[in-house]
Amino acid sequence: MTSRNSFWASSVENHKRRIWVWILTALAQITAYVGVLTVYLSRIRMWNADGVYRKAEEYQKALYQATQDALGFQDNLLPVIIGLALIIGMQGYSYLYDQKKVDMYHSVPVDKNRRFLVIYINGVIIYLTTTLASLLIAVISAAVQRAVSREVMAVVYLGFLWNFLLFLVMYHTVILAVMLTGNRFVTLFAAGAFTMYEMLAYTLFNNLQFVFFKTKDSFYISHEPKLSAVADYVGNTWKIKQLLSVQEMAGTAFPFYVKWFLTAAALMAAAWLCYRRRPSEAAGKSMAFPAMESAIKVVIVIPAAIGLGMWVNSAGYGNTTLTLVTMIAGGVIGSAAMEVLYDFDLKSMFKHLMSSGIGVIGIIIVFFIFKEDLLGYDKYVPKPDKVESVALALSTYDEFWNGEFHYMSAAEATEERMKILNVEPVLTLAEKAQHQDEKDMTDPRIMHVLYRLKSGRKAGRSFYIDFADPTNEELLNQIVGTEEYRTGTYQIITDQDSFELVQSMTYSNGATEVALPAGDGMKLREAYIRDLEKFDFTLARNKRPCGMLRIRFPNWMSCSLYVYESFENTITYLQEVEAYYPVTLNPEDIDSITITNYHNDLGEDYEDMQVYDVKEQAAAEFVYDESRTVSETFYEQEEFEKILQVIYPNNLSVYWHDYKEVDDNYDIYITFKKDTAYPYIRSSYGFSYKFFTGQAPEFVTEATQHNSKDEE
Amino acid sequence: MIEIHSLTKTFEKIKAVDEVSVTIRDNTVFGLIGTNGAGKSTVLRMISGVLKPDSGTVTVDNIPVYDNVEAKKKLFFIADEPYFFANVNAKAMERYYSGIYENFNKAEFYKYLESFNLDKNRKIGTFSKGMKKQLALLLGICAHTQYILCDETFDGLDPVMRQGIKSLFAKEMEERGLTPVIASHNLRELEDICDHVGLLHKGGVLLSKDLEDMKCNIQKVQCVFTTVEEELKALSGMEVLKKEQRGSLRTFTVRSTREEVAAKFAAADTVFYEVLPLSLEEIFISETEVVGYDIKKLILG
To answer: What gap in Å lies between CA A585 and CA B220, rounded to an integer?
Structure first.
């Protein structure tokens, strides 16, 4: 027989007082699952009615995908989960906020541990029961609509675990917040602080580094939250959702399951300890443990005041005095505000001046650590004997993917694939960058470097080097000309398997685009790799590509490979398949050339534009204004010959050349005759040309002068 | 028996209870008297196990009470503002408490509800303050614990209801040895119910005595002496706590037994004398004045 004072009886009693939580949670879960599923499936049916799906299999696949998206890794569930964790956690232990309730609950003969456990388990039961019931209704509804398969169910299960474990982390966070505080308002604040603190602290840390450190690297080493389940959830739900197989999803999600479970367990242990030590008299107060008030104040005020200062810094264009004054003022005001919050009394603002002073001193110390680079971040160049290898990226626009044809960033790919062992040239360039300012460079380029140290540590730095400095040429050749650099930079080298799955290949010389046999992927790869062995900085800097290969792979992956005239193996292959056309055009094939002069130099906004750095200056040079734009079409052979000598295909402009090499003021469109042997692209505006800077023929500049048409 | 030894509790640097030591014997009504802020509620909360003392001990039948279910089974605490669940009636509260207190007497509870004209189906939220206190008392009495701790519980009860509750206490004390501990800031409320009184002031115990002892040892005498010598003769060997004079009529408050006072005054040559009964208020005034406090300011307002 069940005792009247049994765990079960206590649980039932507790549920009686949580009926509104049951109702609210059930409504939220039904909306989140059944409601969203209904919307998703209706949308698919509507698209099907509109003829979007040409085959029955496509429609069926879309139905499965819709169910999977709605019930599996749904990326808009985060606010629902956080909201429910807050409501269930706070309501369950809300008696701790009220002295009257505490008097009653703590005086009756019920074991304190059991009360905690009953409330905790009931909270989990509320979430689980409503979630599973909603999922069951949703799955039945999807099954009726033939939108469920075994794979879909597996994803639903993985998604359920994903959301449940996040709920547990948030639920335990809220319980810990309740145990540390004495009223709802402060609990909300504490729960928010626990959830966001790490993310905000890292954002602030990165921001401080960006503002004060010249060589701040965020390309390889990004300071991201390590413990925050919310950051993990936000950053990975959409990624997992896009994975193609259940196995991949499970494999990617599993480490997070383990991590979140351990996080939840640690939070629970902390909440339990606080519950055991929480004094009953904390009810209604701000903080349950007054001894922690000063420490918490300092921990919150320092980043808050620094954040305020950095905000003023960004608004005040880097005025460091103003920044520091704002930080100190923020520290003083923040400390006073925290004291007022603790006591709900304005008169308390000057309490605990010692801890407020410690907070302000902390703010000043942090400011000067970054402002004066007291830890030597910018001065850091490792000794060669300490470095095992280096990875680096110059152009960050290269295209990479992994074995499953999923996109990889240049940082991920080069970190994984590039191991330059001859580190001296990189370190010499890093050392030189210490003494140079990018504003004094002719052609400044940013170099992202990852040092892999022998100690096992990794360090990343980004610094400018001058491509136009002749003393850098040999150093860059020793980097760019190495097999390690090529291996890390060219997907074509590391990825043999992909070339067996090539979907299409084209070759373009800027005026035409010719399809190559897709089955020749491996052949082309071998030829191009052999040619790449001749590639170094000198070649890249001094020669212009004569064409470009565009290769498309599954899952929308593609890569562009520039072909130089010295790439004889590639050109031989192209000639074999009759796809090679020289970059030089025949004037006799041309019907007309239309040149547009944007007259950016005439713009007032251009004159007024404040240029802060070299990159922005480059962007500032193209300022489109219709009122200043003048277009002129030329028809004479003589004019064609002069123009063709000084133009270059827009799509063959490469990173290695000076961005000022071509004149962004002009766009040149060529119309070819209809009966040429050369298979020109005749209608696409994707293929345009640019003048080399300063080489636009005089007759063009005259014809496209501003107001020249009015004068005619 | 509840034993409190050197109990101390501080809230934010303010000592609410300072080295309080009191013994509450079984089957007596213990009155805890003190002004607002004297520490009565804090002492009761520590006895009931709600608050953890900073130092000192509270034991109920030799069992430490804080965080101890066995000790709490012997206690029922009624706070000055008793808490009832939202939107429930008396039946729901009975179900809750009968699930917690093993000896809860449901039949008795519903009988008492009827006696006190409390509707078992009516939402407690619609009850008056006095009705809520009655309900809390009935729940406490029917929980059949050894001790019932009442914090200002009689405030707000009309005299009839108060009398009814007192009768219930008397009945329960007689039948099963109930020990009520009643805290109040109003001395007059406890006068006719307490067996033992503890007076708290500024967190400390000013005095703790059996009312009978106090009543037996302090007497008030009105008399008219024939001569001053006779007055000195009558009062010799007795501690005079207070003396008032209106014309030739003298009123003395003296520390002595009734018999001794009667004998001494009978032996003296008096025109008239009478040993009068003392109210609890008068006893307290006398006792606290001795230790340098003005009880009127402390309790009687």
So the answer is: 132
